[in-house]
Amino acid sequence: GIQVEQSPPDLILQEGANSTLRCNFSDSVNNLQWFHQNPWGQLINLFYIPSGTKQNGRLSATTVATERYSLLYISSSQTTDSGVYFCAVYGGATNKLIFGTGTLLAVQP
Amino acid sequence: EPEVTQTPSHQVTQMGQEVILRCVPISNHLYFYWYRQILGQKVEFLVSFYNNEISEKSEIFDDQFSVERPDGSNFTLKIRSTKLEDSAMYFCASSVGEAFFGQGTRLTVV
Q1: Of A43, A95, A101, which is closest to B48 when you measure between CB atoms?
Q2: Nearest CA in chain B to A32
Q3: How far is A17 from A26, CA to CA, in rounded Å?
Q4: Above 90 in pLDDT, residue B84?
Q5: What mean pLDDT do residues B19-42 have?
Q6: Contact flag B45-A31 (C-beta cutoff 8 Å)
């Protein structure tokens, strides 16, 4: 099956810093989503992005499907950005989401 | 804004007991899912449901698990005889393209 790897596994930032999170996948995918898991465990939708670039406030995402990766950019980070960021892909004939390994982000004041 | 709702938010159960986790998906969505997340680990697929039947299930989804859409709005996950290793956060999701997740049910088996 499709493998989804994220990097870095952990990241500590000072408030106000920028960061880039990466998601690599091992095969062609039909679509890709980014989620933020907050400290209460909720999975919050960030982007639904099969290709191209999307922006939402301080966050933006770029997916290059032909090269099998996606990037999530966080600018001017805030403490409320802390949590785990997951990418998840829909692959092949399946309609299920396959989650990546996650990036644990801690933003310090 | 429509959302996926799950009940209960927490459940503690004795090993060997049956539990039913409940979900109300977003009303116009066609695909329904259950996922689980053991503490500190990644989110794992359990089962997908489409057109009133299971469309795919993982190796985790053995005979102890079952799903049902009993009344056209609710979507349930039953674990027949819980084990300690079933302790996890269970997420329901629905989609018609983009998937949306409920807030989760934290199941603790003691």
Answers
A1: A95
A2: B98
A3: 30
A4: yes
A5: 94
A6: no
